[in-house]
Amino acid sequence: MNVRRSAVVLAAVAVIGAAAPAAAAPSPSPSRPALPSALYGDGDPQYDGVWRQSLALLAQHTVGVEPPKPAVDWLAGQQCADGSFAPYRADTTKACDAKTTVDTNQTAAAVQALAALGGHDDVTEKAVGWLKSVQNEDGGWGYTAGGASDANSTSVVIGALAAVGEKPAGVEKDGASPYDALLKLALPCEGDGAGAFAFQPDEKGELVANADATAAGVLGSLGKGLAAGPGKGAKAQAGCERAETPEQAAANGAAHLADALAKDGHLTSALAGAEDQPDYGNTADAVVALAAQGAAEPARESLAWLEENAAGWAAQSGPAAYAQLILAAHATGADPRDFGGTDLVRKLTATGPAAAGATPQAKEKEKKDESDSGFGVWWFVGVCLVAGVGIGFLISGRAKRQQP
After folding, report:
1. Is residue 312 part of a domain?
2. Residue 244 maps to which CATH number?
3. Band of the pLDDT at 272, cuts 50, 70, 90?
């Protein structure tokens, strides 16, 4: 589920391309249009505007914070006439056309957020209608309409269907449901990656375990969304059993994640050149998946690792990262207002429109505190350059990886 990776550091691309000193931030571009004041985060929203806004609103909802109305209105206003959402539309007075890059992930995330907040049935109904219209014959969804089904996209759409009261098992195309699509992407219990989910079959048609897809696949197979709470009545499972039902596939996937997390408490990046780097976002997703399945102990252990280590990552990554950590805390019953000494709710709120009673000066001070934290964006870029981490690690959003 990773449009959610460091969209803030998209601005670093110019620095890397020019081989500028890592410690030097670029001069502001006078031609860059101002971002909407209702948008969470100040990074380039081209690939993740709707996604990060949706996660931010959803995370605030889980902790009882009422998001500012302009932020909610901005999200609803991003919808195209056919019900779909693009990552970012700078000018919503201009109708969407064939050049508008709508996708299933932004659309499904927006549905989940707006359904949770309530009062936007017209928007969510149109969005779900569009999602149903682009369902693949195998029952799943790809990142874009017509793209091959993948575990992440299928799962986030399942969460959207559940959010509006639909039964995902009953949403079929040619007799196949989303759960059928996920079962085809679940690895068997024999061989490498037993019990995990693949993102998609590889070029040879083989399934290769993918931790990001596994976290998504567990939630999807359980029929739950991004803001899933602790599993009720489910039991943690050791090992893998033949998956003939979505429930068993979820149990297998959770067992695989628990094994992967057991050594260090976190997952590592699968991207070339970054294999020794912790994957904070994927670890947070895994915590949600484990908690939703009922594997409370491994979920809490990895949450503890995030509490100790993820504050700097969230500070440089922005609102989606804060939201992911809040959702991980929510899934495990932890307090996101005291997350290893960090108030995630306050940090997330500070990245968006000023709440009622908050002054622009207070919000600006919050941003300055984060930029002075010692783990700013440009320090992070410098580390990546020195370590030889490729540009793909910096802009590793799913929108860049999942084109059909």
Report:
1. yes
2. 1.50.10.20
3. confident
